[in-house]
Each structure stands twice: as structure tokens, then as C-alpha cells.
Amino acid sequence: MDFAEILLRPIWLMLPALVPNSAAVLFGGGPPMDFGRFWRGRRVLGDGKTWRGFIGGASAGIIIGLLQLLISEPFSSDHFGFGSASSALPIIFALSFGSLLGDVCGAFIKRQAGLERGQKAPFLDQYDFVLGALLLAFLVNTDWIIEKMISGNAWIGFIVFLLLVLGIHRGVNIIGYKMGKKDVPW
Ligand code: CTP
Ligand code: MG
After folding, report:
1. Predicted structure pTM score
2. Which residue minimizes the CA distance to atom 16 of ligand 1?
3. Cα separation of 156 and 185, whole Å?
4. What gap in Å lies between CA 108 and CA 111, rounded to an integer?
């Protein structure tokens, strides 16, 4: 792999995890996932986690993953790292759902820590979804995560992806705020 490939590969492979988190902001609204319930005196998840955001976001991630398979098919039977369609599909599902499950877990931790919806929790806000996506994909296909995100030079591209997430997270939340979907621009 040349240098550009090392840098771009993890971004390409993590797109189905990146998109759901951003798309949830756009789809968000309607009944909250916890239906307003409390646990230990705090909201379970809060009004920032809605079913529309969860389902819409996860669907967006899966659709992006399927599009990636489609457009890469003529150039690479490996789909530039996703593997054959039969190995790629479970990975794409795991990255998309894992992403929003991680986001939900992050919200649960924030609420239990006494942080209101939208209050800042550095690291957790930016990376809960990355952790969730990696964890679920790791359970679904351990070898794939190790090979594509860690082995050889792959970790360099993965670090670049993590830095990119910071910028995208910021940008998407400003857009969400301007659209009236978020109470705060971060
Ligand atoms: N969103 C949603 N459903 C989800 C995830 C996100 O509707 N499952 C929408 C909400 O409108 C939310 C926005 O996307 O406000 C941004 O998500 P996030 O920054 O994670 O939520 P916060 O409002 O910051 O709330 P929290 O403190 O719980 O993270
Ligand atoms: Mg959050």
C-alpha cells in the first residue's frame, strides 16, 4: 500500500460508522428512546436520543456502506478492504448499529454523571460512537478490525480518522444547531 492508501483506507472503512452519528442529527425528533423514563433519579438517555435519530442514522450508515460496495465493485473485488460482499455486510451492519449504540451508551453515562442533554463531556461526545462501532465490529469479525485498523501501518490511517472525527463532529453539530435540531452548537 502506498502512503495515500494507508491514510485513506480507515476513513473509507469507517464511513458506515461515521455517517450514522451525523445523520442522527438530521433525522432526530419525535419520541425519545427512553420515552421520558428515569433511572436513579436521572433521565435514562434524555431528549437528545430519539428513535427517529437512531433508526434513521443506522439506516443511513447501512445505505452508505451498500453504496460503497456498489461503487467499488468494478475496481476491487475486495471493495477496498471490506472484503467480499458476504463478509462486508455483517461488518457494515455492525459499524452502523454499533456507532449509535455507542452514542446511546455515552448518553447513559452522561445522564448518570448528572450532565444534562448537550452538556459537554469531552472525549465521550466525540468518540462514544467510534468505540461502539469498533466494539460491535470486533465481536462480529475480530480479524478484520485488527487487520484493517491496527496491523502494519493501518494504525496510522486510523489515527488520521480519529482526528478527522473531531472536525466533523464540530461541523455537524453547528449545522444541527442552525437547523434547530440541537440546543447547543457542540
Ligand atoms: N439524535 C437523535 N437520536 C439519536 C442520536 C442523536 O435524535 N439516537 C439527534 C438529537 O437531536 C441530538 C443530536 O442528534 O440532539 C446530536 O446528538 P448528540 O450530540 O449525541 O446529542 P446531545 O444533544 O449532545 O445530547 P447528549 O448530551 O445526550 O449527547
Ligand atoms: Mg453525544
Report:
1. 0.96
2. 25
3. 30
4. 5
Kind and range of the H or E element at 10? Answer: helix 3-27
**Which ligand lies nearest to the CA atom of residue 46 in the structure?**
1
In this prediction, residues 143-171 reach a mean pLDDT of 96
**Which pLDDT tens digit goes with each residue over 59-89?**
999 999 999 999 999 999 999 999 999 999 9
Q: How far apart are the first and last CA of the chain?
A: 36
C-alpha cell at position 112:
448518570
Q: Within a 10 A sphere around the Cβ of 72, how many other Cβ atoms?
A: 17
Say which residue the cell 493501518 belongs to: 154
Name the residue at shortest CA distance from atom 5 of ligand 1. Answer: 49
- Flag whether pLDDT at 51 surpasses 90: yes
